[in-house]
Amino acid sequence: MSATTIHLVRHGEVHNPEHVLYERLPGFHLSERGRRMADATGRYLAANPQTNTVAAVWSSPLERTRETAGIIIGRLNEARAERAVVAPDGHPLPALELAVDERLIEAGNDFRGKRIGHGEGALWKPENLRLVRNLYKPTWGESYRHIAARMSAFASEKIDEYAGRQIIVVSHESPIWSFRHLLETGHPEHNMLLRHAALASVTSITFDADTHQVMSITYVDPAANVA
């Protein structure tokens, strides 16, 4: 029996001094702290013999995820060069390059561009809050079911493509948690306030490569203490 492990990494902190709900808006990059968070996670993955031999790194197309993935790739490639890391079969590992997939993108959100706070364009206005009718079934954008479906399609494809190997996938809180919740409970609906996917955290899901059944789910937060 062979297994495929997908390490789902959430991007680091974003530079957002105006507290805008940026969702899929362009131009939102990692903050300096976010870059340190990505580096902490990259160093963790590079130091772990179970993750420094990954076959590929995939990312959402948004800036914050591509930047996080780039920092992680830098740490992994550095470790491979310095420590002569080889694949489990003993063959040399090629340098990693970033691959992008639209299915990993942030959830669609009708509040995109709104500000968290008061004043013009603020989220917390009656006309906006009327859309928030059910935290378990978003009424303000893309449904958890649709989010989980696109993540599931990506994962199913990669389980076969990378059978017996591991990959890193950099995405966003909602896609990561909706997919995990689907796998653990059979449904993706959840209370968004109870998610467990911190910035730059790693949710590792191991699948039986033949049946696609979940074998294990683990979670670590390498950037928890980054100031």
UniProtKB/TrEMBL annotation:
Pfam families: His_Phos_1 (PF00300). Gene3D superfamilies: Phosphoglycerate mutase-like. One of its GO terms (molecular function) is phosphatase activity. CDD domains: HP_PGM_like (cd07067). GO terms for cellular component: cytoplasm. InterPro entries: His_Pase_superF_clade-1, His_PPase_superfam, PGM_Phosphatase. This is Histidine phosphatase family protein. The lineage of its organism: Bacteria, Bacillati, Actinomycetota, Actinomycetes, Bifidobacteriales.
